[in-house]
Design goal:
Layout: H1 2-7, H2 20-28, H3 34-47, H4 49-57, H5 61-67, H6 74-87, H7 92-110, H8 115-129, H9 133-141, H10 144-152, H11 158-172, H12 178-188, H13 196-205, H14 209-216, H15 222-234, H16 236-246
Helix pairs in contact: 2-3, 3-4, 3-6, 5-7, 6-8, 7-8, 7-9, 8-11, 10-11, 11-13, 11-16, 12-13, 12-14, 13-15
Length: 249
């Protein structure tokens, strides 16, 4: 996404569209000229999701980019993460392929100390969570929830971590154990009053019986939760789109 590149003062070719020819050229030269081609790919993914499909069908392209996530070059590592982030805007099948190839590395990145890299990884994992089903199951098994909760405790990554948790639990909440739900609430409550995204997350957890019992004895007023639940009920049809939109800004 352009926001990350602009924040680092990196010029990736202005605002003009990437032509099909330029995209295919970048894809073919990916392994020979990585620093030039990764910015082209990530920009093209935002312009047309058809480029994402072409990228995923290209022999070894995805695995090459995933391999750059553990590069010793911080610039290359961040460019690769941003490339994965924009590719995660594709359909459910695209997200499944990306998650299977690289989710474990992205989750490891979230546990790291490079804030810029962590922020992009959080956005990517949130996008991948929207594809439901087997992808969410894979993310859960690979330790997504503990990683997001760890990021929730950090000021610089709290909002994005909460957004990703909202995206993940939007459909996967029924599969979480009571212990996991209660742990999510315990970690979130200290930040409830300060973070709107944490408020949405706690509200999303509150229909679970274990959550209701735990929250009934918490400092959070019942009025606050009722208000949040009312807003969430009114906007339930649009919540999924709201969460997707939040990742794009």
């Amino acid at each position: 996404m352009e926001l990350y590149s602009e924040a680092r003062g990196v010029d990736i070719g202005g605002t003009s569209d990437i032509s099909v020819e330029d995209f295919k050229k970048a894809l073919d030269q990916l392994e020979r000229n990585t620093q030039h081609t990764l910015p082209v790919l990530k920009k093209a993914f935002v312009q047309d999701t058809a480029h994402i499909i072409t990228f995923l069908r290209h022999k070894s392209a995805l695995h090459f980019v995933i391999g750059r996530l553990i590069s010793s070059d911080p610039y290359e590592q961040l460019e690769a993460m941003e490339c994965c982030c924009n590719a995660s805007l594709g359909d459910a099948k695209s997200c499944s392929l990306i998650a299977n190839a690289g989710a474990i590395y992205m989750i490891q990145i979230v546990h790291g100390t490079n804030t810029n890299l962590v922020r992009v990884a959080l956005t990517t994992l949130g996008n991948l969570s929207m594809s439901k089903g087997a992808t969410c199951k894979l993310l859960h098994e690979q330790g997504l929830v503990p990683a997001l909760l760890a990021a929730l405790k950090v000021d610089e990554t709290r909002e994005l971590a909460a957004k990703a948790l909202c995206q993940f639990t939007y459909t996967y909440l029924p599969q979480l154990s009571d212990a996991e739900v209660m742990n999510c609430i315990e970690v979130s409550l200290p930040f409830f009053e300060k973070s709107p995204e944490v408020q949405w997350f706690v509200s999303q957890l509150s229909p679970r019986e274990a959550a209701r019992i735990y929250l009934s004895a918490s400092p959070i007023t019942l009025y606050s939760l009722r208000l949040l639940n009312s807003v969430q009920a009114i906007t339930s049809d649009n919540l999924r789109q709201k969460l997707c939109d939040l990742t794009l800004h």
